[in-house]
Amino acid sequence: MANNMELTECALKNKIKEMQFVCVELNLYLDTHPNDAAARADYLCFGEKLRALIDKYAELYGPLQNFGHTPTNTGCYVCSDWPWQ
Predict the structure, then answer these.
(1) Is residue 35 part of a domain?
(2) With the C-alpha atoms ordered 31, 37, 38, 42, is the resulting torsion angle positive or negative?
(3) Whether the Cβ atoms of residue 62 and residue 77 lie closer than 8 Å to each other
(4) Are 36 and 29 spatial neighbours (Cβ–Cβ below 8 Å)?
(5) DSSP result, 15-79
(6) Is position 23 within any domain?
(7) Residue 84 belongs to some domain of the structure
(8) What is the per-residue pLDDT for 1?
(9) How many domains does the chain have?
């Protein structure tokens, strides 16, 4: 059985995936309905929530991507412990 830390990390990753899905779907909708103000507002709101989740994940567990999208030190993942260590 995984410990609570791993469950929390997994749950946070799942929430990020959910928000990414919502943002992509809203983006696709806005491609065909560019004047829908409510959809645009939803897109911006969910985009902010996604950014906050990604930032929270990076703060707790390190970057999700190796460059450009996290406030952590560039390249710090190379010097950190690897999953098997």
Answers:
(1) yes
(2) positive
(3) yes
(4) yes
(5) HHHHHHHHHHHHHHHHHH-TT-HHHHHHHHHHHHHHHHHHHHHHHHH--SSSSSS-SSPTTHHHH
(6) yes
(7) no
(8) 43
(9) 1
Tokens of 26: 């809203």
Average model confidence (pLDDT) across the chain: 81
Contact 12/56 with Cβ under 8 angstroms? yes
Whether residue 78 is predicted with pLDDT greater than 50 in this model: the reply is yes
* Dihedral of alpha carbons 17, 19, 15, 69, sign: positive
Q: Is residue 39 part of a domain?
A: yes
42-58 mean pLDDT? 93
Q: Give the pLDDT of residue 80.
A: 65
Instruction: Quote the pLDDT of residue 6.
Output: 56
3-37 tens-digit pLDDT: 555 558 999 999 999 999 999 999 999 999 999 99
Domain hosting residue 58, numbered range: 4-79
